[in-house]
TrEMBL record:
Sequence ranges assigned to domain RDD in this UniProt record: 213-312
The organism's taxonomic lineage, starting at the top: Bacteria, Bacillati, Actinomycetota, Actinomycetes, Pseudonocardiales
Annotated ranges, domain VanZ-like: 49-188
Swiss-Prot/TrEMBL keywords: Membrane, Transmembrane, Transmembrane helix
Protein name per its UniProtKB record: Teicoplanin resistance protein VanZ
Amino acid sequence: MVATFLLPVKTALLVFPLIALVVMLPVAVHSYRSRGRAGGWTTLVFYCFLFYLLAAAMQTVIPLPSDPAGYCAEQTYASTPQLRPFYFLQVLEERAGGDWSLRAMVGNGALWSTALNVVLLAPLGFFLRYLVGMRLLSAVAVGAATSLLFELTQLTGLWFVYPCAYRLFSVDDLMLNTVGAALGWLVAGPLARLLPSLEPERDRRRYATRVTTSRRLFALLADLVGFVAVVGIVLGLIVLFGGTVVGQGTIVVILAAVWFLLVPALTGSTPGKRAMLLRLARTDGRRAGPLSIVVRNGVLLSPMWLAWLALSVDRWDFFDAPHQLLIPAGILLSLFVVGIWTPLAVLVGGDPGPHERLSRTVNVAIVPQAPPPPVPEPEKVASP
């Protein structure tokens, strides 16, 4: 029985790194914009919450039947929903057989199943109060809705992936899960006093002005992911409306010029930097001009555009066209500058990278203005 309960947790441990990798960038964007940093206690709590949700979901669907057709032909206990409230009390009494000793209770599988249904959504109630700041009624409603989602997933055979319900839909599970969410919310009150505060203003005051290496890397990653997504959408729309992508190289160059040159020239930031609340400025504090932006991004993104240039060559012939040697030589040089020199300068020496030295630009944090405190209304003086 213990192995059955641990199997979903093991599955969640295997799947969680992939999910964390997918949500890492959006989480970093939200963290930098709300707290000025991507790490810290709040981020750890969020990823714990994410892992818990995954483990709870796995608990409701795993183990899966290895032979769905054979299982559905032989097993019928889950074909009819259990709609009798408090039926679990009758099951407990039947399983106990009149023996309510501690040893008998420890070996009573129905008792463990009931306890698990209560415990399953207790962490949800805790996180909804501690992390989200949700009130009791809202947390109970979310707990009930989550439990209903789990039960419907079981009733529909993993939303009709399987030809029958392989786990029983039970109204008792709905009740016990919801009670567990409420208990978790209640426990979060006194427990939160012992844990660090998740108030973002404290982190914002301390970290909002810092331009850390991780912040710059996330900005670059956001730019690359966003640019690739835009290119894919534009090319996909062209094909969708009957066009061809014969001139896709020109389209990509135009989009790259807009994303990495025109937008920062007009706004001071690429979309990725803007997401991380960063902007470009000259070393003397003035706004970075178009030429500085061209030099900076041209050096920083040189491996990409040189590789694109290499792929656009129809025929390589170093004897008849020796100038083609400049492309692989440039790629090697750019890989050294961007892949070795820049990380060593930034991470080890704490110095500006070569793209910053040549363009005389730096990243500057954008610090949003805090909203002014509410002005108290003047007290009305009663007339004599």
